[in-house]
Amino acid sequence: MDFLKGDESSVDELLQAQDHIWNHLFRFISSMSLKCAVELEIPDIIHNHGQSMTISELAWALSIHPTKVHCLRRLMCILVHSGFFTEHDVSCRQSDLEKGYKLTLSLKLLLKDNINLLSARPLLLAVLDPILMKPWQHVSAWFQNDDDDPSAFSIAYYGQTLWDYAAHEPRLNHLFNDAMSSDGLLTASVVLSSKCRGVFAGLKSLVDVGGGLGTMTKLLACKEVRT
């Protein structure tokens, strides 16, 4: 191969290129690991515990089979690397030191029962659901198909749009509405903060276009619109 000339610089470039490819090939592991942790309710378990938890404590709380505990440790390592947990040494009875795990702010937004009602959990579960992941396997086919297919979703689901599919699939309909509602609430809380609040000064009417359940519009109307 032309770029393998035997000199050190070309070898370094080749390794960097391979590293770049691998980084993108396996990037899905981060999002799937996060989904796994949320489905297992690991963030909620640590939050309710009130302090950091070790792998052995988590394994006991999750009723993980002893043969899988080492895999739980690997899962937590991935999520520490991704910035969702912090890791530090804690004293334990069985040994002098063991790794303990705490939540970051990002994971606090993924708690199941968020007392502030600000949660990104429904959005995560919707976006990473197999129904919405499947169309990504058909994007190349969509580019090569005729104009009759409006999206990769329609190829994956035999001509149906997302709205068609959701109309007869209650689970997707529920996932999508929950995701949009929670994301709207989270966004509205930022929009209505002191930094952005002046944008709505003097507003007397508000039109909601394609608002789904209307979560954001209701909040804006309640806080800002004066009629």
TrEMBL record:
<dbReference type="InterPro" id="IPR012967">
    <property type="entry name" value="COMT_dimerisation"/>
</dbReference>
<keyword id="KW-0489">Methyltransferase</keyword>
<dbReference type="InterPro" id="IPR016461">
    <property type="entry name" value="COMT-like"/>
</dbReference>
<dbReference type="InterPro" id="IPR036388">
    <property type="entry name" value="WH-like_DNA-bd_sf"/>
</dbReference>
<keyword id="KW-0949">S-adenosyl-L-methionine</keyword>
<dbReference type="GO" id="GO:0032259">
    <property type="term" value="P:methylation"/>
</dbReference>
<dbReference type="InterPro" id="IPR001077">
    <property type="entry name" value="COMT_C"/>
</dbReference>
<dbReference type="Pfam" id="PF08100">
    <property type="entry name" value="Dimerisation"/>
</dbReference>
<dbReference type="GO" id="GO:0009717">
    <property type="term" value="P:isoflavonoid biosynthetic process"/>
</dbReference>
<feature type="domain" description="O-methyltransferase dimerisation">
    <location>
        <begin position="22"/>
        <end position="112"/>
    </location>
</feature>
<dbReference type="InterPro" id="IPR036390">
    <property type="entry name" value="WH_DNA-bd_sf"/>
</dbReference>
<dbReference type="InterPro" id="IPR029063">
    <property type="entry name" value="SAM-dependent_MTases_sf"/>
</dbReference>
<feature type="domain" description="O-methyltransferase C-terminal">
    <location>
        <begin position="136"/>
        <end position="218"/>
    </location>
</feature>
<dbReference type="GO" id="GO:0008171">
    <property type="term" value="F:O-methyltransferase activity"/>
</dbReference>
<dbReference type="Pfam" id="PF00891">
    <property type="entry name" value="Methyltransf_2"/>
</dbReference>
<dbReference type="GO" id="GO:0008757">
    <property type="term" value="F:S-adenosylmethionine-dependent methyltransferase activity"/>
</dbReference>
<protein>
    <submittedName>
        <fullName>O-methyltransferase, family 2</fullName>
    </submittedName>
</protein>
<keyword id="KW-0808">Transferase</keyword>
<dbReference type="GO" id="GO:0046983">
    <property type="term" value="F:protein dimerization activity"/>
</dbReference>
